[in-house]
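stuck on this:

***
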Amino acid sequence: MRGIKRAWLRLGVVLTVAGLILFCTHFAEGIASMRGSVSLYGPGGDFDKLTKYDHIRTDYDFSLGSYMEMETTTENKYGRTVGKSYQYYYAIPAYTEENTYWIGLEVPEQDTELMEQITDESYAFLMGEESNFGSIYLTKSGCLKKMDDEHYSYLKAMFADMGYTNDEIEEFTQPYYIATFDVAKTKFTFLLSIVLFWAGLVFLVLLLLFYLRSRNGAASATTAAPQTVAAQAPKGTMMIGNQSFPKEWFVRVDQYVKQNELEYAKQDLRSLTGITYEEAEQVIENWQRYYRS
């Protein structure tokens, strides 16, 4: 029974922790996926007004190319790499009412071919080889995230290679990128994290209530039992459970109790009577009523 209780307790803890981890790691994307979308370039898409909780869904049709590649590896339980995935980051424009800034766009590996075509068309327009751009575009959902220092350094390095000074780069770049996501999968993961967390929490509360109830019931039964049992026990014997034992058997147990070595007392009592640990604990807690009666 005790093993079963431990198993249920572990299950409750695992559910709660797993839900909490998923919730925290997917919080911004989860909130964004649940909201209505805005476009980075359409009405309401002013870059200054966007937050990390906005669902940004845009047709991306202009880019200066990729400035960073990130590799993510998946390992099995033995530490061996069993899979790799790649994310590429492209420089794209972001507009405010007064300025144009360059930020990053996260692009999955399967979309890089299309993004390279968009980049080629963008440069053809800048070089005057094409009179327009936008015939090719990549539609993605995502949310705004801040770059760490290393990430931002790659974006600035791309413009430094073009001949811009650091002061100029600081003026027309922003340390942000659009982290893309699959809306359906992100919603599912976010809602799953909430369900797991609350299911685990409710599970733990129910286990706690069950434990307190059973402990209170056992304490009440133990308080009432000694007087009745003592009255039924023949002289020179002790009634423990439904069995009678010679009192002389328990001299050493009594010594352990007097010395406050309660664990030894429980062990000795169990070896003499064959009762469970919980039953031994109840007897030792009420030892004077059993032994002195």
User: Anything to note?
Assistant: The mean pLDDT is 83.
